[in-house]
Amino acid sequence: MNELAKLLLERLGSAFKSSTGANPSLCITDKDMIKKMNIRHHLTLFTNINGVQDLMKFFATCKLAFQSSVIAGEPNYLRWKDVLTIIREWRISLTDFVGQYVQYKESFVQFPLDASAFVYLMQVRLELEYSRLSSFEVVRDMMTKLKLEYDSFYREYQTLFGQHVQRKVYDESGSCTEYRRLKQPSLVHCFFPALELKTILNKVDTSRYKFPRTTQHILDIMSVQNPADISILENEPVEEFFDHLVEQINVWLDWFEKFVDIFLCIIEWLRNCKMEKADQFYRELYNTRNDSAITLLKIKTLIQDVLKIFEHFNHLPRLCHLFNCTLPFEIIDPGTVSAPDQSKLFIAETKQFRPNDNFKVNANCIDGKIHRIDGRRHVRWSLACEQYPYHVVIEYQPDGSSGEYYALQSQKFSSRDQCLLRGEFKTQRGGHLKMRIENPSQHVPHTLWFQIKSNALSACQLFHGIFNIEYGKCFDSSTATIKKSDFVTIMDRVFSFIDNLLDGSISLDEMNELRVVFCDKNINVREEVQKLFATRSNDDNARLPMTTATLATSKTSSDERIEQVCKWLETYQYYSHVSIIIDCVKIFQIISTEANDQSMNHLHDLTIDNSRSLKEISDTYNDVYLRFKKLSGEHLQLIKTMVACPNVVEMMRNSKLYSTDGLRRFQELRDNLTTQFQFQERNNMILNSWIITFTLCVPFVHNARDLEQFVDDVARLKIIDENSCEHIKGRTQL
């Protein structure tokens, strides 16, 4: 009998679908026969609706059951809600159910789906679909298709809405996306008159409305006061109370988003250092940016747990500053108009090296360009136009649920002299840089050329070098997990080392541990020292009464100390590279033996007294500082790279391109290949790399009179970009 019933339902479903709901249909009018058939009982065969095919069988049986109920003259006619409650599991969305019903609605003209049945469907599908159906516009669209009256729907929906408000809104178990959406105008207020607010509030756990407690360190880093606890006292009309609640929760969400922006990279670093629980917290914090279903209660609990990690991090503000994460978004230059000659040069270089970096705006149109920016980036953008007038709007919209954006620039250009716009910003959160152009010309289309340079936010090499030294003294690569207390101890030692370094009291013997950092990393000493001083100065200044005179004196004193420490560390940096410079001069025979340069002999004999302190290095080794002070960290890194890649210099020297005739041939070859590769991006990149390599090799292929001339030749090099040494290393692989 079960097999027969299944076969019968298959036939009924097929007939219903193929006839667009016209079949099957009851032709029997005998009440006794109808009662014996008991079609209503066949509905109990449906326990699950697994897809559209099952829905067709269900609709066909419903139609016959409704007809039989009427013919049999039952005192209580079968209703849609009675039928729907039989189904224990729905594996079809409400949207699909309504869509299929509307397609076959002519079959149910005598028994239309009513408001109570629709609300019931919303209730059983609520947990799975609420993120999509919380917009009343979607519900209203369904009601229109079903031809439901709003009054009857509201009466049926009020109870469900009250349950949802308690569960999702007042219990903080609603998703953050929902609270963001509730800020927008909607029909939600239509349900408030029937809402039993007192009943709802009596069931709410008031402890959930307490904002997480934070230390002074966290307050200083966040640079904003903590949001207030949320008041749930019913002392205002329900509409105003609800709006105020949503507003307060969104203030919480803004604070939580800023917290994640600032501390995510710190947690990621702790994870890489294998600190306990850091991996779990990083994954959960990262997911808050992308998980639209995450609830307010969950993110609040997560941040409370993260705050517990930071309770004993005494140097947390300094750490955040060194990691460049204290500001979620920083506008360095909103957009500056450059000189007219720079505009022509920029457009020419863009056409030559990046011919695809352009877009067109037709006459009397508004158009633009959207560029994806990853998280934790330092972005420099440029935009130029060959025609005028035009109006440009530059914005940055970070990822996130709040929908915020930063207006960088909005400017009208009316003459050819105003054609190049350059700006700069830093962002913790990835997002989109939007360039919108309005072309008011009635006939002339505009072509705009752009450049977007996006680099990772700079790290403090000295800090990481010192940390790695202290970390290596306590743990090795086999260590699985580090306790928070052990990590705090390491951090205390790291910042003690930094303070001694800035005071100059550290010994040169201790500095030897850092020597590899000075040699292996491209360190800009001034930037590094300014970062280290800025964090310590904040602590120092916090203990002083801030008057105008105090601020001026403090700034002067700080600048002087920075200059002094820079000289100490630059001297040490030069000393660390002395052996490399000697090797460079020897390998490439830069100084002829006939020159008899006594300065080289002095360098050979140079030794350092490790018992002295860093502050004494300038007096003892001032000669080293004076000889090499023209060289930057990039120049020293270039010298080291050349020593590591001698075949590149030898190859360029053998090409004989540095003589007068060779320079002429090089110029001709460069011009010809530039024209030939104008629209071949890859070949253009290779050509550009060769040109950079040719320029960087100049001091190493020519002979110098003495060491001073060699230093001058290197110092005159224009380091074309921060990755110049990579071009040299790339030649060794060809």
Describe what this molecule looks like in 3D.
- By secondary structure, the protein is an alpha+beta fold.
- It folds into five domains: 2-215, no CATH class; 238-322, no CATH class; 329-456, Jelly Rolls (Sandwich), CATH 2.60.120.680; 467-629, no CATH class; 641-734, no CATH class.
- Helix content is 55%, strand content 11%.
- It is built from 34 helices and eleven strands.
- Strands 3-9-6-11-4 form a five-stranded antiparallel beta sheet, covered by helices on one side.
- A hairpin with a 7-residue loop joins strand 7 (390-398) and strand 8.
- The N and C termini lie far apart (79 Å).
Contiguous helical run count:
34
Ranges where pLDDT stays below 50 over 5 or more residues in a row are 126-134, 541-547
Structural class: alpha+beta
What is the number of independent domains?
5
Largest sheet: 5 strands, antiparallel
Helix content: 55-70%
- Mean pLDDT score, rounded? 85
What percentage of the residues does DSSP assign to strands (E)?
5-15%
Overall geometry comes to elongated
**N-C termini distance:** 79 Å
Number-wise, the strands total: 11
Rg computed from alpha carbons, rounded to a whole number of angstroms: 37 Å
Trace the largest sheet across and list its strands: 3-9-6-11-4
